[in-house]
Amino acid sequence: MPTDVEYMRRALELAHRAAGQGEVPVGALVVIGDEAVGEGWNRPIASRDPTAHAEIVALRAAAAAQNNYRLTASTLYVTLEPCAMCVGALLQARTARVVFGAWDPKAGACGSLFDLPRDRRLAHRMDVFGGVCSEESSALLRRFFESRRRSGTAGD
């Protein structure tokens, strides 16, 4: 059975795909048991859809593959700490676990800025594990944004 690190390496491959398309390099993978049932990478620019974060794309693919909007036994692997929108979608899907790479102090909703998965006021909670392959995830994001600043497209 693959480990969290092995699944995160696949999420990093997906993040590289996003970067190659000019998107913020975030990749995500939904796993049930030991099978990847959905994957995605950031696509808001290409799809002209502000909700097309890697997590949402992966959840949509997994729900379609499972023919069910509830993904109760699933783990989401993502290279960047999910934002509030993505955590909301993960909670609605009843995701069991979230494993992420880099912490996001500006928008993270799994312990950095907010801690929605463990908020007792909500109907569902998830186990969260942050910092898996954090150096690789952080370095990929840092290189991407440095490149954008050098090219003058940092605000896009």
How many DSSP-defined strands?
5
Cα distance, first to last residue? 40 Å
Counting DSSP H or I runs of 4 or more residues, the number of helices is 5
Shape field: globular
Helicity, in percent? 25-40%
Report strand %: 15-25%
Give the class from helix and strand content and strand pairing.
alpha/beta
Widest sheet: strand ordering? 2-1-3-4-5
Secondary-structure element string: HEEHHEHEEH
Low-pLDDT windows of residues:
none
Q: Return Rg in Å.
A: 15 Å
Task: Describe the structure in your own words.
This protein has 156 residues and is an alpha/beta fold. Helices cover 39% and strands 19% of the residues. The chain is built from 5 helices and 5 strands. The chain has helices at residues 4-20, 44-47, 54-66, 84-92, 134-151, and strands at residues 27-32, 35-41, 74-80, 97-102, 127-130. A 5-stranded mixed sheet has the order 2-1-3-4-5. α1 (4-20) packs parallel to α5 (134-151). It is globular. The model has no long low-confidence stretch (mean pLDDT 96).
A few lines on this structure:
With 156 residues, this protein is of the alpha/beta class. Helices cover 39% and strands 19% of the residues. A five-stranded mixed β-sheet has the order 2-1-3-4-5.
